[in-house]
Structures are given as C-alpha cells and as structure tokens.
Amino acid sequence: MGSSLSDSTNREDLHSAIAAFDTKPGSPGKKSDGREKIRLFLMRINWLAFVIPLLSITAGLAAWQFLTESQTQFILDFSNIPTPVNVFHSFRDAVVTTVFWRDIYWSMYRILVAFAFGSVLGVTAGVAMGYSNILKLVIAPYIEILRPIPAIAWVPMAILIWPTTEESIIFITFLGAVFPIVLNTWDGVRRVPNELVKAARSLGANRVNVLFHVVIPYAVPNITVGMALGMGSAWFALLAGEMISGRFGIGYFTWEAYQLIQYGNIIVGMLCIGVLSSISTGSIYYLKNKLVPWAE
C-alpha cells in the first residue's frame, strides 16, 4: 500500500516537472504558444481591407499610365496630362525645396485658425437654434440666405471688408467650415428625445444642466459629423481663396504651376490637397470614436 502510494506520488512529481519545463522561456511549449498567438492575430486581420484598396489604386495608376502614354483623346484629352512617373519626379523635386513646405505650412495654419473659429461659432449657433425657438427664428434666416453662396463669390467682398489678404483668406475658409457644422449641430440637438429631457428635469436639473449633461452629449455624434464635413468644405474654400488672392499656400502652389506650365506640379498640388484633407478629416473621426465610442 505504502509502495503504490509512493509510486503515484513520484509519477505526479514527474508530470509536474515536465509541465514546468515546457513553460520555461525558450522552451518548445512557449514557442508553440507564441506561434498560436501569431496565427490567431493573422486570422483576425481583415486582409480584404488592405488588398482591395491596394488593387484599386494599382488599377487606377495603370489606367492613368495607359491613357497618358497613348495620348488618348476620347471625350477627355489626356495628351497634355503627365504620367504617374512624371508626377513622381515632380513630387521628388518639390519636396526638397523650402517653397513647397512653406506653402504646406501656410495652408495648414489657415485651415486650423478658420476651422477653430468655425467650430466654436458653428456649434454655438447650432445648439442655440436647436434649444431655443426664439434664437432659431433670429439665426436661421441668416444661415439659409448665406449658406448657398459659394466660397469663390465671397472673395471680392472679403478683400473689401478685411484689411489684409491673409485675413480675407481665413474668413473665406471660415465660411466654408461653419455652415455644415451649424446644420449638423442643429439637427443633433433637435433629435434629443423628449423623454431624456423630462427625466432629467424630474430629477431636479434646470435648463442649463439639461443642456450640458443631456442635450450636448447626445448631439456629439452629429456635431463631429458636421465638423468632418466642415473640414472638407474648408479646404475647398481655402483653395479658392489662395488661388485668387493668396501669395502662399498649396492652392497658390497649384495655380502657379498652371501659370508656369508645370503640369506635374499641378497634380502634385492636387494630391497634397487630397491627402491633407483626408488626414484632417480622419483625425476628427478618430476623436469622435474616442469621445463617443457607443455611436459606432
């Protein structure tokens, strides 16, 4: 009896030792666990999210290369359009100059200043319109009259009412940003369920508390969507201002390239505009996901 008990104990100790050996760093068991984790990680990656856009861009570049090299003239004239290789060479030559980065800096500076003012005023006006019928009657007529006016139509007036060209460009960019923010904020505030407001009032909250603790948090998803749309509109307005009355900026860079018949730099400017706009808009959506993750 004692001998069998001792044998059983020895076998258990042996199994424990083997298990401990297998889990030591660098042991085959540890390596197997690492390979399993890598395999599971690779399985979780959505390869289609990378492969399909990559194939789409490759196909677009191939079509661009074919149409420009063959100088196709069917509906559209591609005989004067530079090839992707020529555009790459133009980009390579531009990025080593201080003029290019100076233009990037001025465009980003104007966007940030105009968008900051547009966000503050747009959110304030949108909340006021959605939360007060009287303020809506006061503000809404201005929004509906001024909103359809394109940014380029504001250029002569902006030059007249602002003392410097720089301020007029920022003003035009501000107009491009503010209206989408106002409208989406207004819509977000109007969508707040009355049940939430009544529940807060029944718990003793006054109108100010309801505004900051119920209405605005509920409207944040709409506000961020409006800010993203406003950012895109701000870039459109900025380029109109820079092309007509600017001396610096990526819009001026693009327009100057056209005047100097530097067709490669025209496309470089256009692509820079697209990339910068996408990055700035994506940053807003990233902040939205951090602020209101439940909205996804």
From TrEMBL:
Protein known as:
ABC transporter permease
Q: Where in the cell is it found?
A: Cell membrane
Instruction: Keyword check for ATP-binding, yes or no.
Output: no
Record-level GO BP terms:
alkanesulfonate transmembrane transport
**Per the UniProt record, which residue ranges are transmembrane?**
45-67, 111-133, 145-163, 169-189, 210-229, 235-255, 267-287
User: What keywords would UniProt list here?
Assistant: Cell membrane, Membrane, Transmembrane, Transmembrane helix, Transport
- List, alphabetically, the InterPro entries matched: MetI-like (IPR000515), MetI-like_sf (IPR035906)
What does the record say about its membrane topology?
Multi-pass membrane protein
